[in-house]
Amino acid sequence: xxxxxxxxxxxxxxxxxxxxxxxxxxxxxxxxxxxxxxxxxxxxxxxxxxxxxxxxxxxxxxxxxxxxxxxxxxxxxxxxxxxxxxxxxxxxxxxxxxxxxxxxxxxxxxxxxxxxxxxxxxxxxxxxxxxxxxxxxxxxxxxxxxxxxxxxxxxxxxxxxxxxxxxxxxxxxxxxxxxxxxxxxxxxxxxxxxxxxxxxxxxxxxxxxxxxxxxxxxxxxxxxxxxxxxxxxxxxxxxxxxxxxxxxxxxxxxxxxxxxxxxxxxxxxxxxxxxxxxxxxxxxxxxxxxxxxxxxxxxxxxxxxxxxxxxxxxxxxxxxxxxxxxxxxxxxxxxxxxxxxxxxxxxxxxxxxxxxxxxxxxxxxxxxxxxxxxxxxxxxxxxxxxxxxxxxxxxxxxxxxxxxxxxxxxxxxxxxxxxxxxxxxxxxxxxxxxxxxxxxxxxxxxxxxxxxxxxxxxxxxxxxxxxxxxxxxxxxxxxxxxxxxxxxxxxxxxxxxxxxxxxxxxxxxxxxxxxxxxxxxxxxxxxxxxxxxxxxxxxxxxxxxxxxxxxxxxxxxxxxxxxxxxxxxxxxxxxxxxxxxxxxxxxxxxxxxxxxxxxxxxxxxxxxxxxxxxxxxxxxxxxxxxxxxxxxxxxxxxxxxxxxxxxxxxxxxxxxxxx
Length: 659
Ligand code: PRX
What we know:
Elements: H1 5-8, H2 19-24, H3 29-42, H4 44-55, E1 58-60, E2 66-67, E3 75-76, E4 81-82, H5 84-94, E5 101-106, E6 112-116, H6 117-133, E7 141-145, H7 150-162, E8 165-168, H8 175-185, E9 189-193, E10 195-198, E11 201-204, H9 206-214, E12 223-227, E13 241-243, H10 244-248, E14 260-261, E15 265-271, E16 279-284, H11 285-299, E17 307-310, H12 317-329, E18 333-337, H13 348-356, E19 360-363, H14 365-377, E20 393-397, H15 403-413, E21 420-423, E22 457-460, E23 472-477, E24 487-488, H16 492-499, E25 508-516, E26 522-527, E27 531-534, E28 537-540, H17 541-549, E29 554-564, E30 568-577, H18 584-601, E31 610-614, H19 627-634, H20 651-654
Parallel strand pairs: 5-18, 7-8, 7-9, 9-12, 12-13, 17-18, 17-19, 19-20, 20-21, 30-31
Antiparallel strand pairs: 1-4, 2-3, 4-14, 5-6, 10-11, 15-16, 16-24, 22-23, 23-25, 25-26, 27-28, 29-30
Helix pairs in contact: 3-4, 5-6, 5-7, 5-12, 6-7, 8-9, 11-12, 14-15
Adenosine-5'-monophosphate-propyl ester is lined by residues 271, 317-318, 397-400, 422-427, 448, 510-512, 524, 527, 533, 538.
């Protein structure tokens, strides 16, 4: 918390928005930004009500904007009714955009498939009719475990059309993770694929589904719909499993959207927290749709002929907000990419921008950092080898973007013409919170700049006092906003405790440590809890530790993050073994075995980069693990601190070898 702004900011220039953008921007210049902020401050209900009327088609108009009676269980537009899928698709058929390309899908092998809004609408209707024919209805839960495809987006939209609540599980998660989410959310339907194809490899998806459903409680799932992506060679349970293409056959191209109350849950998305199992973050239909659509318009300055590419997977919130929903409601033509940025080589992103004339490109700092590295060792994959002149806006999300990466992105990808829009937000916030606006905000590399109009943030100390410019503290959001998390699925107490703890005086606690500088610019310093950010993915330290101690050789484990140039943080696991400490090859074999174990228990992204063995963990006399010391060791440094409070200082020596 004591880091000063000076120490994180190595690039001190301010970058003004290009005049060309300012001239035509939806929010043009800082005066326009301030006018919106003033409108929201003076009468928040009128501001949000105006946006909700202008941006959403309502089946039944709302009469109340915000209801705080049961705070922090806020409700928005509660007596209004709408259908999210209708707002993402049908509206475009009626406003002359039926034949506009909605999605450009590029497969791992480079094959391209396109659908118009009319075609996508028909596809969504057929799938929705199919799901309906199986007996599913509003309020039922469906788990979606699919690769990036037109089909996954159509499936999510089909659920929304019926009021079926979806919970997407990232295809990189293991069957155990899938199982716990299916059980927690009470899913009676699973939608998956035979395989996913990434980086030239076929990775099974249906197999892990079968494994998950064979576990205790898995029998709540009555049907499994399978999209055939790669040959369909999978095990089959005839009374339960059915192919997506067979389900769609003979279904009508029209399916009336089911109007739902604005507060009806649109989806539940699990995310790692500081303690215990992942939390099911519950989002509401009306508020989520509103703020994802409006932020698409403002933050990406959406224009009718834009080609928008958000590189996220729909397994994460970014893909929900800025692929499936907000950006589709905004009517953008979007790229959907199945593969990985480094296949067949690390020029893939730039080649695709060139090929599809992408105008707005939104990715994560970890991808940028890895592509910087790759282009330093192979000039053929450097962005300058490609024609990137179609780009007008660049975005960043998921973790702080270090100023060096910012400037490289701005210079080499954006040709010094495209502002870098560093968007801070979270699964829980549903949509952007603190971010520049491309035609308004002067940029400082490494800062996510200013809160959006209607959003109020502060940095508070533990006693709920504002810390003042340039000092670190808890980043909080002081007023409710429409796309905020509504609940932790099935656990309202946890919702209150985690996000609205009494010591924050009613503000939403983000879990991030931040500073606000003298210009009101926000600098994110990382998490205040043990949540790790690996390649922009949020992983709970305790979640990985629980998986580790379930291994039969492990007595106790502590996981810490070590700063990493490419992935942001790398996982280092300190393991207290049962029995004798292995050495040499034996230790290496055990480390491999533990990594395989974590891959199957949690997923490959949670694999520790380094494993260190000891016959205990460094503990205080009261039995608390000294994580601070573990971080020092993980960073490869000598422990020079006073270790006199340690019960067992001798164990530190054992951790000197990393496997
Ligand atoms: O620590 C912040 C970091 O990612 C966390 C949210 O992760 P998740 O819920 O998985 O959502 C990621 C996509 C929105 C935050 O608590 N984070 C996200 N965006 C930024 C960021 N840190 C710094 N700068 C950002 N732009």
